[in-house]
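re the bet — no i am not wrong, look at it urself. input seq straight from the record:
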Amino acid sequence: MERNEAEIESAATRLEIVQGLLMSKENADIMNLIETSGTANEAQRSLTQPPFSMTEVQAAGVLAMPLRFRTQSGRRNLEVEAGELRNRIG
């Protein structure tokens, strides 16, 4: 795989995670589901099902999300990052 293709693939994966993080910021039910799940695996499975239908990558990213991303500045940083990633991907 060429370097450029690897960079695009890496950016696409990160964008997928960032989109999941932003989704969790917009939907308080996601955080409630995590808090009430018996295990992290249960929470991850639930996040990939309707009504959330996250990808496995997004669900894992949300479960690993540091709390600082729950702040307003964290959201702005994620939105900026998402825009930069979209530009890199083209």
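see?? Helices lie at 3-26, 28-36, 40-47, 56-63, 72-89. told u. also The radius of gyration is 14 Å. so pay up
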